[in-house]
Amino acid sequence: MMELDAVRQNLIQMGETTISLFEQALRAVQEPNPDLLAAARELEAQTDQQHQFIHDQCLNLITLQAPVARDARLVTGVLDAIVDLELIGDYSYEIAALSSAMRRRPPTQVLAQVSEAGAKIREALTIAIDSWRNGAHDQGLSVRPKEPAIRAECEVLYEKLSQLTSVPGDAAMYVDLMLVSRHLERILRHAVFVAERAAGAAPANAGTA
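The structure assignment produced for this chain is given below.
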């Protein structure tokens, strides 16, 4: 059904927009500037528009065409996935906004930890979108096993930052970075959900095309 393929392609495009927004957020942590925040704001608005467009497409398919079971599973999977993608966009923009408001640059070691965790989360999100692109059941299920180790990294970062809040004059910056680390965990969780929606919409025997 051409309409179903169009919906899936639009979801993939939304996923690519979300990845770009997350990348801008990570850049803003490293080198905050107004241009990055403005770009993140535009991408966040774009994800909202894409979400609404795909949502309307799916509702039209459900109400006008009454898709059969497998097609209905894909449509409901898309509806769930776009909610997760929109939330990833919201958290990514919040990271960019928090970073842009910092008055001084965090220590290099802290920035390195954020960058390392962010790179792994970006990889998980990319796999999630590729799972939709490839219709790959196993690929979609491959993200969940990566989650505990990345979440643990975020937790170690959070604890380190909480100890640094006692540094005179820098408490606000470290509190903001604590929020960044929590947002990274949330983005990871939603990336896992996006991947699992792809697995649920794909045939069980589909590999990692």
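Interim note for the steering committee: The chain has a mean pLDDT of 92. Residues 2-201 form a domain with the Methane Monooxygenase Hydroxylase; Chain G, domain 1 fold (CATH 1.20.58.220).
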